[in-house]
Design brief:
The complex is a heterodimer of chains A (about 270) and B (about 230). Helix content of chain A is about 85%, strand content about 0%. Chain A is mainly alpha-helical and about 270 residues long. The model of chain A has no long low-confidence stretch (mean pLDDT about 90). By secondary structure, chain B is an alpha/beta fold. Chain B contains seven helices and nine strands; from the N terminus they run βββαββαααβαβαββα. The longest helix of chain B has 18 residues. The radius of gyration of chain B is 18 Å and the shape is globular. The relative contact order of chain B is 0.20. Chains A and B meet through α7, α8 and α10 of A and loops of B.
Chain lengths: ~270, ~230
């Protein structure tokens, strides 16, 4: 019982850090028109999780390794072939899914946890590490945020100002891989893309300025994560008919998104 | 005959080849300090490639020699701002944007309320002025403008060139601008560079009024050999 309470408290803390990080980094993903890339990329973690479980090391290290290696491969192929990012991520995503299913085999319980998230095993150590990594990812992203936005406005303009666009894009992909790997604990590989996309598009509904957009996206990410895990802990739990918190996080986020649509429609904030 | 140190740029034997296609072919020209150079040519002639090459964004062969203390401001033809929730103030603050209110005055955007507007809701003319103000933030001595009136209605074009002319005089900067408008070349440029992969004309801008020069520029492409460095 005490273990469950501790685990819930750590999960709530973790959901705030993960929500802020995915929301903040996701705000750039949405502006890059790569929302679906963020979603598909998260599924690439599946084989990494499977290898971690099979060989008894932290599955999230495996998830991160797979995410980052895949992101780097996609980045390099895109640079050399000019094939669209979406197409490459789509190919990599389905390949990873196929490899993941093969590795999991008949271990359906582990597969379910990987797909929808498992917060029952969250400890104070894993929460502390995840929080530190999320903060580092946010700080690093903040340092390159303006440069990435300038490159979105005009890559030539950014390069002419001495910005190493390819390098900061790779750093950004690395940071996205990190926070997605951590977010998988809360909502699973199938739903973590939600935390990258929806807080950002909700924030966009209420923003005429970049600063408001980025912090609102972070706040909405944290609110969706925290309220989803809280509602799940109070009304459901690991032994209920809904043993995973991920779907509740998604419902919370969708309510926020719907509210921003109504507010924007009523007050015409972005028009 | 211009003195050697009157020039801000010397280009010799400049060629650009990408994927086995020649985009620029053996160009030689010099540009004097404090002048406006108009770059003219049909679509696909390599005008934008030339500007990007001068910015060192594209690999080339030959030589591009800027004077030692050159500081370049660049205004691209296209920018993607419609979907980005960024205010004018935030945009102008990117990079060395400490003195952007002064830059806004230079481009005659004196109403400070524009600072809180989203880039995506600006008119074509306002957006071009904001982009020019951003380029002026670093106090450049060279401005490269790729069709500076793209997306601007015809009535608003002339005021932008008038403004650029004034900036050139007061800031003593050299302007390179790509245009398709012969009237603009005649009114606001000092020198003209016509290209169609190679140089088809290089000389004083007023020459554009001569029918034989227009034929030379817009007729069948005949590459001209300039005396190296002179225009």
């Amino acid at each position: 019982m005490t273990h469950m309470l501790d685990s819930t408290l750590y999960s709530l803390c973790l959901s705030i850090f993960v929500g802020v990080a995915t929301g903040y980094l996701g705000s750039l993903m949405v502006l890059e028109k790569m929302a679906l890339v963020g979603d598909a990329l998260s599924h690439v973690a599946l084989p990494g999780l499977a290898i971690g479980i099979t060989f008894h090391f932290n599955p999230f290290l495996g998830a991160f390794a797979f995410l980052f290696v895949s992101a780097a491969i996609i980045w390099q192929i895109q640079r050399t072939t000019k094939i669209s990012f979406e197409a490459l991520v789509g190919a990599m995503f389905t390949l990873a899914l196929a490899i993941g299913i093969l590795i999991y085999g008949d271990n359906l319980d582990a597969l379910e946890k990987a797909l929808f998230g498992d917060i029952s095993q969250v400890t104070i150590l894993s929460t502390t590490i995840a929080a530190a990594v999320c903060v580092a990812a946010i700080v690093l992203t903040k340092l390159i945020y303006d440069k990435l936005v300038l490159a979105m406005i005009s890559e030539d303009l950014a390069i002419s100002k001495g910005i190493k666009v390819a390098r900061i894009n790779l750093l950004y992909l690395f940071l996205v891989s990190v926070v997605v790997a951590i977010g998988i604990q809360i909502v699973g590989t199938l739903l973590v893309g939600f935390l990258v996309i929806v807080p950002a598009i909700a924030a966009k509904n209420l923003s005429t300025h970049m600063r408001r957009y980025s912090w609102l996206s972070a706040v909405f990410g944290a609110t969706a994560g925290f309220s989803g895990v809280l509602i799940w802990s109070i009304f459901f739990g690991p032994n209920s008919s809904i043993p995973f918190s991920g779907p509740l996080v998604v419902f919370s986020g969708i309510l926020i998104f719907a509210a921003t649509i109504v507010i924007n429609w009523r007050f015409k904030i972005t028009t | 005959m211009a003195e050697n140190n009157d020039y801000i740029l010397k280009v010799s034997n400049l060629s650009v080849k990408l994927q086995n296609q020649t985009l620029l072919d053996h160009m030689n020209f010099n540009v004097k300090k404090g002048t406006t150079l108009a770059i003219l040519g049909p679509n696909g002639a390599g005008k934008t490639v030339l500007l990007k090459t001068l910015l060192n964004l594209i690999p080339y062969t030959g030589s591009i020699e800027w004077t030692e203390k050159v500081k370049i401001g660049y205004v691209p033809q296209y920018v993607a701002v419609s979907d980005i929730p960024m205010s004018v103030r935030e945009f102008l603050s990117i990079g060395n944007g400490v003195n952007f209110e002064n830059s806004l005055k230079k481009v005659r955007l004196t109403d400070n309320s524009i600072l809180n507007k989203r880039l995506g809701v600006l008119s074509g003319g306002q957006l071009r002025r904001v982009l020019i103000a951003w380029a002026l933030n670093d106090n450049p001595n060279v401005l490269l403008l790729d069709e500076p009136t793209t997306g601007v209605d015809m009535d608003s074009e002339e005021p932008i060139y008038l403004m650029l002319n004034e900036i050139k005089k007061t800031q003593k900067i050299t302007i390179f601008l790509i245009t398709h408008n012969i009237h603009i070349v005649q009114e606001y440029a000092d020198a003209l560079l016509a290209i169609n992969k190679c140089l088809t004309f290089c000389g004083p801008a007023e020459e554009i009024a001569k029918p034989e020069i227009q034929k030379q520029i817009y007729g069948e492409t005949v590459c001209v050999e300039t005396e190296r460095g002179e225009k």
